[in-house]
Prior knowledge:
Blueprint: H1 15-35, H2 42-49, H3 53-59, H4 63-82, H5 93-105, H6 109-112, H7 115-123, H8 131-154, H9 164-185, H10 189-203
Helix pairs in contact: 1-2, 1-4, 4-7, 4-8, 5-10, 8-9, 9-10
Amino acid sequence: MTTTATAPAPDQLTPKGQATRARILEQAAEMIYTKGVHATNNEQLRRAAGVSGSQLNHYFPNKQSLVLAVIAWQADRILTFHRSEQFTRFDNLNALREWADYYIRYERAYQEGCTLGSLASEIIKTDLDVHEQLAAAFEQWKEIFHDGIERMQQLGRLNADADPTCLANLLLAAFQGGMLLAQIARDIAPLKDALHGAIDHIQTFSTPARATTPTP
């Protein structure tokens, strides 16, 4: 991956090409997660994805193009999940609790950690020029919480003292920090405590009429 050629955009590929690219990305994400960026090389990735060297260089002409694509791929998975109807757009406290409980109940959460967070902690150690893309991915994630908290205010479920930016930062930090501590302890308790504590704090901004009213 030493050429300066531009990687083809996914929407410019045939369905077969898109499938090949996705297979490479999936293997690259796993290898970067387990081995690190520097230890992920062309030969290992080529064998894992079942592609030739020319195919690999066609889709990802250099390591930076590969890492940028992995960031986008991981971010898309996270953001799509958090925008799903499963969490009813985070417009009430029950939706936040359901989100927290999903990860708390997931038996492999403390083993796998946060895929995007783990990727970020690995990539920021390198000299690759991808920090802007990483920051944008986390900003989009934070905006999901921010918009949800704003909607709670608009619906009269939280009072005007609730700062959407501050509380969105709190939720994301609680998730990332709790997940890391859970991995270290190999116990889900730190994640559970962090998420429940963050949501309990948000509940302190509930309006009197909404504080104990269950969601219809």
